[in-house]
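Q&A log
Question type: sequence-to-structure
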Amino acid sequence: MPRRGQIETNLLRSATFHPCGHAAPSPDPFTARTLLGMDSMVASRQLSISDMAVLAAICQHLPKEGDPLARTSLYELAQDVYGQVGGKQADLIFESLRRLAEITLRMPGFDVTSKTMVRSVSGVSMANLVGAIWVDSRDLQVLTKGELGALNHRRPVRVEISAWLARQLRAGHATWLDLELLRALGPGLAGRLWAFIEGERLPGQDLMSNRTGALGLGAPAIATLGLAKYQRRADVNRKLREAAERIVRLDPAWASVELAGRAGSWQLRYARRDLPPAKLAELRRGEAWRRANERSERREVRAVIRESLRSATDPSHPS
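Response status: OK
Response body:
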């Protein structure tokens, strides 16, 4: 079965998740426009794309009713987000969980209760994403680093999802993400753009019966995507095109993702193959198999090269 997670769609469109790669996201408060150019959001810190994957993996375990307590395990979270389980992956999961518990934000978007666009989806000035997090019945916030290191990877994890977030998710205002694909795309710009367009409505249709849409990228969106540091427009174009090409290369759902430049802004145009969910899942799993096979072949080639170099430099090594 594919590893999937879900993210509240307003949150996905916000500037909360920053494509910072493998670096730690900034702990500084910020104010930013959403990717759709709506009212500004305010947050106490940034989160990374890996944090987004952890939250998505947690939210898939939200019960349909009752207490919004998601039950999972360190093993399952590490498999969902990193594809493997070990001490390093467990440490990264703990770092993400702590950031998710730490952040507070005010975010504009569609409120399922009022059925209108509001300046604060949570209904309060600043809100959390998650409340308490328990690892093996112990509060994550009071565990020392040594205690965390001693925890077995099979330990259960319980995460209290905030009431407003649970309300939005249960009403279906969510975007499902293929976590294996997100991992393949990486924690940079390609992963961030892909996650955004996965949640977009595609009102148009091209001659090949693909569903089409477009995203305008002005200065606020460019800043949200971590591209404001580039002084030259050509550098921004290059980064956006590289990310778009990576999405099309790795995800067979997207027939095309192209960049159109205009004075002072950009537009991303995309076309998604109009396929039944089962067929799309089959294509994606085939693509995942191909990537895994290529990685295996590369490992074998590197092993052969290392063996050849050892033989060439060590006369005593058996040939």
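Response note: The chain is about 40% helix and 25% strand.
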